[in-house]
Specification:
Length: 467
């Protein structure tokens, strides 16, 4: 028997053994993906839907020849579990594994590449055989025609807003493709944990963006807009999306605590989108949310206030064809919204956004005292001292009695002077170092030249040779 024939025979025996002894891990129990654990894992935790999974893999033909390997490229393969980014067998198989586990998987064509195959390497209707290993998590695939060894290096939850503030791990996938929008009425079940201790457990109905009225942190409102009906997930909230610097004394939550919530979205009714509302309704609702935003702002709940003021902008900023009366009311609401958003962003230390909101407010009223002053504040905090001074000077042109603006001009001048002096010191030190280096180089060069000259003198004049 040749080496190729022996390799092929061994693969067929492994596949037959797995088909006989393998556990059916498909939801439909149709034996489409069978699994045998070769080595149990060392941890209890498995990856969840949406987790980012890092794998290394090696693919071989039935004759043992390698046709692909991420190891050769020295770059792991990354995919999100349960999102349809890989063949079904990967999604199903990896979800059942534990860290450190090694297992074998055998899957039917409908759980792999189906009738289309994956030209030119994988033929149509190929049955696939996998050996999976999770050292962190790993996975080996042996097809009826092809064999893959895949090592799952690591997994981590989905970063919903790519700022590390809200991490989601889905325990049960939701139904459909619709999500609650801002202002939607939702019914959820939640459990809140801090430091491993449960502090909240309830069924609650509320409006997205107003969860704080029910002692629910803003991170839950934000995450709900990414969830589907029936979804059950775990949410890890950083302090910014939790109860922040204020904490929550009612629950014994300290300032800047990290929180964990388990949330099930039971049902929801979407709020009207802007295009579904007429101008009259938008103006009526603008008055309501403005008041709500101001209440949140006074309570120091700036992210919640941003949501309310932002609704006014989304409803009215692009509204056209208004009557004179409606246009005046719309501009008034928009001006207030932009000014209040600027103040919220100053409190949240998002100074560029504060400047942007002030710019829009000043587009509606170029001499608005609050708009000029708040833009000056933001620019000052961004170390744009000259621009900030110009804004404060314009404030004084509008209102010469504004003592705060006068004081801020002095601050700008002082900061500019300190900045210039610091720059002078930096450049002076830099030039001194350059001069010192040049002097050393010159001294070294002179020393070499003297040494050469001395050597030449010691050698004496060259004696002429015969012609």
């Amino acid at each position: 028997m040749t080496t190729d024939e022996a390799t092929k025979s061994e693969g067929e025996v492994q596949a037959a053994t797995l088909a006989e002894r393998g556990e059916d891990i498909t939801p439909a129990r149709d034996r489409g993906v069978l699994k045998i654990i070769k080595r149990p894992g060392s941890k209890d935790e498995s990856p969840m839907i949406g987790d980012k999974v890092y794998v290394h893999y090696k693919g071989k033909l039935a004759n043992g020849k390698k046709f692909d390997s991420s190891r050769d490229r020295n770059e792991p393969f990354v995919f999100s579990l349960g999102k349809g980014q890989v063949i079904k067998a990967w999604d199903i198989g990896v979800a059942t594994m534990k860290k450190g586990e090694i297992c074998y998987l055998l899957c039917k064509p409908e759980y792999a590449y189906g009738s289309a195959g994956s030209a030119p390497k994988i033929p149509s209707n190929a049955t696939l055989f996998f050996e999976a290993t999770l050292p962190t998590f790993s996975l080996l695939f042996l097809f009826f025609f092809f064999f893959f060894q895949v090592e799952l290096l690591d997994f981590k939850g989905e970063d919903l807003f790519e700022d590390g503030g809200i991490i989601r791990r889905i325990k049960r996938k939701g139904e459909g493709y619709s999500n609650p929008n801002e202002g939607a009425t939702v019914e959820i079940h939640l459990e809140g944990f801090c430091g491993g201790t449960r502090f909240d457990c309830k069924d609650v109905k509320f409006v997205v963006g107003e969860g704080e009225d029910h002692d629910i942190p803003i991170g839950i409102d934000k995450a709900l807009e990414k969830m589907q009906r029936g979804e059950h997930c775990v949410l890890y909230l950083g302090p910014r999306y939790g109860f922040g610097e204020a904490g929550k004394p009612k629950y014994g939550i300290q300032a800047n605590a990290e929180l964990v919530y388990e949330v099930t979205l039971k049902s929801f009714e979407k709020a009207k989108e802007s295009w579904e509302m007429d101008t009259k309704e938008k103006l009526e609702q603008a008055a309501v949310v403005k008041e709500k935003g101001t209440m949140y702002f006074k309570e120091g709940k700036y992210l919640q206030a941003v949501i309310q003021y932002g609704k006014i902008v989304s409803w009215l900023e692009m509204e056209y064809g208004l009557s004179e009366k409606e246009s005046k009311a719309s501009d008034s609401f928009l001006l207030a919204a932009f000014l209040n958003l600027a103040m919220c962003y100053l409190k949240l230390r998002e100074y560029a956004k504060a400047v942007e909101c002030c710019d829009k407010a000043l587009g509606l009223d170029q001499d608005n005292e609050k708009g000029l002053y708040r833009r000056g504040e933001a620019r000052l905090l961004m170390n744009e001292f000259e621009l900030a001074k110009c804004d404060f000077q314009k404030v004084l042109e509008v209102n010469p009695q504004n003592k705060a603006a006068k004081s801020q001009i002095s601050v700008c001048q002082k900061k500019t002077k300190e900045h210039n002096e610091r720059d002078r010191r930096i450049y002076a030190n830099m030039f001194a170092k350059f001069a010192e280096r040049d002097a050393k180089e010159a001294a070294s060069k002179t020393g070499v030249e003297k040494a050469v000259e001395k050597a030449a003198c010691e050698k004496g004049p060259k004696t002429p040779g015969p012609e």
